[in-house]
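Input record (Table S2, row 355):
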Amino acid sequence: MNATTLSNAVTNDSTVKANTESLLSPRFYKTNYDALDRINVDPVREEWDEMMEAFERDENRDHFRQEVDFENDVKEMSDSLYKEFLDFLISSITAEYSGCVLYQEIRDRSNNPDIKQLMAYMTRDEARHAGFLNKSLNNFGVAVDLGFLKRAKKYKYFKPKYIYYATYLSEKIGYARYITIFRHLERNPDKRFHPIFKWFESWCNDEYRHGEAFALIMKSNPHLLSGLNKLWVRFFLLAVYATMYVRDHTRPELYEALGMDPTEFDLRVFDITSEISKQIFPLTLDVDNPKFKKGLDRLSKINVEIAKTKKQKGMMPFMRRMGLSVLASKEFVKLYFIPVVKNELPDRVTVAPSW
Ligand SMILES: [Fe+2]
Ligand SMILES: [Fe+2]
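Output record (fe (ii) ion complex):
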């Protein structure tokens, strides 16, 4: 299917809206905004100010203003690849926009000048990421109504500390994913079937910096990284890794088109993310333990079976789905109890991205 035919495969506005909840797995969050006012970044002031200067310089400013050559740079796609790629774009725009809405909300409600300034920069970045994805979607004749998403999507309440763990990880794993794809396509330019991948390098540097901000916030609140909170760090690491692994294994066509193996790709992303997260987390998951990969593979298979039952109607598929969900929870718990690797925190938190 070429770009023109794709444009003809117009998904009208209301269809996209209707599909929103099932297609868009990334969630929208709200939190306790008063608690964010109590953050004091003085213990990391020097690093904080350096980071703020980098946000202010904004070396990626012009990057997202460049024109995309949709006409000549989008390669032919099979229907199944198109479907997976579209799903990838839509779930990416939701994740970007979800970050944008959360940061904007904190910016507007916060009375803490450091947090307000940080959130203004991050809102700016996520808005341009979402806008850029929207351009790519528009080229396919698909319109995601972001205003509608903001109003209609269900918001999940997360305690501030959960926001720090989850957002830190999603920013860093986002960096690891984008840079791994970008480097792979540098070596295999013939596999770059869409121009959006050319933007990934500068894009992921934005995400990397967002992660640095949350690392500094956690460092200035050391109780978030000790005692029982270590169990939460462990939980979020596993939840983020497992979600990515399971989701990537539902997109075989996309990875085949890129010339990548989703398992190898995910293991590489785990390695990079674990290496980065040593800047702030007192532990990493033992991703090299063979039990870890085996557990994720089982979880992935269960997910495929669950998806099949969702397409069937009646009591039997429903009962089967319940049983499979229990199995998935058991696998998750087994993965959780694989011993972790302890990590000694460095004095300086921020690290330059070097992957
Ligand atoms: Fe982003
Ligand atoms: Fe981000």
